[in-house]
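queue> pop job 88
queue> type: inverse folding (structure -> sequence)
queue> payload:
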């Protein structure tokens, strides 16, 4: 089996998220001077660590099931002097109890819905309901999730769940947030530059592997196939159609 460089070598965040947008999201969460912060699906913890840097009185909990990513998050916390305030655990977010003043959940709604293998529509309502229970009134949530940025086409849905109702448009997601206990402070959408950077960073490991191995390496054909499928799915499929919404929400 070929092994690739970790995604954090080529991506700062595991989402289509620019430095400018990340700074706005962090400022929104830190503005209320939270004492506690939670990042669901934290990956290597970059966003949570930035929140803790911006809110020096806060303690943070990052949850993910990827042990390798969590190990990187813990190293980063040590390197940035945040190890005493940042905890990273391989734990199901459905097991979390208590409340947090600042919560981040980007691309992790499937935790509260049907298994991705079932290829069902994304259950935004279940995710928003669960996240609202983790926040006191006035608590803040950055909710990032997939949406349709344009009407889905057969080529766009083929590499995804294969169904037109997998996601909703941005306006419908805003309505769902308001219906499930939140006031919407801001609603934005990742732009194509952010998506191109994300997809390029996601696929960079394939290119690096091919550059470092002979063309007749036993694994080379598999890696070329992986790279081709990724590029076809994005550039020939969902580019400009699959979007990523970022909602800045306040619990009401």
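queue> result:
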């Amino acid at each position: 089996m070929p092994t690739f460089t970790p995604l954090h070598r080529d991506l700062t965040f595991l989402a289509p998220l620019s430095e400018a947008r990340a700074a706005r999201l962090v400022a929104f969460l830190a503005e209320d001077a939270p004492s506690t912060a939670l990042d669901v699906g934290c990956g290597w913890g970059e966003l949570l660590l930035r929140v803790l840097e911006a809110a020096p009185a806060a303690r943070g909990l990052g949850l993910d099931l990827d042990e390798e990513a969590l190990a990187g998050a813990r190293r980063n916390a040590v390197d940035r002097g945040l190890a005493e305030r940042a905890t990273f655990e391989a734990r199901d977010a459905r097991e979390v109890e208590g409340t947090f003043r600042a919560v981040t959940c980007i691309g992790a709604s499937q935790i509260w819905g049907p298994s991705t293998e079932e290829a069902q529509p994304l259950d935004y309502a279940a995710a928003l309901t669960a996240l609202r229970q983790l926040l006191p009134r006035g608590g803040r949530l950055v909710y990032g999730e997939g949406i349709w940025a344009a009407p889905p086409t057969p080529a766009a849905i083929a590499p995804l769940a294969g169904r037109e109702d997998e996601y909703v448009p941005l306006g419908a997601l805003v309505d769902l947030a308001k219906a499930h206990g939140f006031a919407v402070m801001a609603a934005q959408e990742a732009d194509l530059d952010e998506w191109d950077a994300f997809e390029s960073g996601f696929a960079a490991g394939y290119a690096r592997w091919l550059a470092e191995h002979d063309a007749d390496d036993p694994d080379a054909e598999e890696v070329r196939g992986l790279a081709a499928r990724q590029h076809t799915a994005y550039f020939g499929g969902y580019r400009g159609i699959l979007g990523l919404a970022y909602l800045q929400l306040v619990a009401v």
